[in-house]
Amino acid sequence: MDKKDRHSTKHKQFNKRELRSHHGTGSYVPPMQKELERRQRQLEEERRRFAVRPVEDRRNAADSLHQSALEEVRARRKTPEMTLGDTHTGQYDSLQANLGRRRHRSKQVLPKKRRRPQERFFRMRSHIVKGIIGFIVLMILLYVLPIPLGTIAVTGNSKLTEEDVITAGHLRTPVNLLRVWPSSLRDALAKDLRVDTVSTSYQFPATLVVNIEARQPVAVVATSFGFATLDKNGQVIQLSPAITDPSVPIISGAKLGNILLGDTISDKGVQSALTYLAALSPTGKKEIAEVNIGTPNGLVAYSTTGIPLRLGSDSQLKEKAKLSEDMVADVEKKNTPVQYIDVNVAAPYVKTE
Predict the structure, then answer these.
(1) Distance CA 332, CA 283 (A)
(2) CA 30 – CA 77 distance, rounded (Å)
């Protein structure tokens, strides 16, 4: 028997064993099943390799692998086409089932598409830029349009109202705090003769608090055409033909000419009298009716009961103011008739009748 015959005999024996294995009589594993297992392992490796691809790419890759596996099986069996009815060995059914299950499983476990860090950065930056632009447009509209925004509260003063602040500060109505500059408002109110000091602050949610300390009248002095009311600095805050407030002390003995509203009196005697009156307490101011600066012996104050208080020179006027308050209160308490009170810080005394 030559080599060709021996090969033909072995091939026939191999086919007989293969037939017995198809009928369940042996433990032989057919080549087709090995091929299926090899293709399944290849599919698993390809799916792991394509796990980082997008969803559509992985699905297309799975479809192509599925189609290539079928074509390779057809080529090995040398059949024109395989169908579900070709179940001579059951290999095609097993291939379809395994590939179908794994394809369905791959569709279920496909992760969602992840955004790249650079893409997230540009998207976040775009949102931030849009928010800033929207905020700027909103602020411009609120500034230009006549929309009321916020309120103004006036504190520390009972003479000036909110309308007075709006008028003195040259503010437009309705009040919009976006158009109000606190520094400009303070400068405008500082020029008002009724205002001594002014400060501003903001209060939540949208309130501009204007704290105003009004000028307090300290004395009244006679002028060529009437009377001028002075503050503690000697500035004229009011002009009138007659005395409007009798509780304000009078400075007599001064020779003043034509005085205008807003002028500051720089006369030395007037400034000394203002220093003495400004040093008095609110109660002491009610006890002093006049300060004469025209006497040769210096300043002389008069109480509301007519008691002269000889102040003398313009030195230690603040100490003399406190001393005169105590001495006047003591005399009125004892109800003692006196000629005058010498307000001498070193040796004060009361001259009785």
Answers:
(1) 14
(2) 13
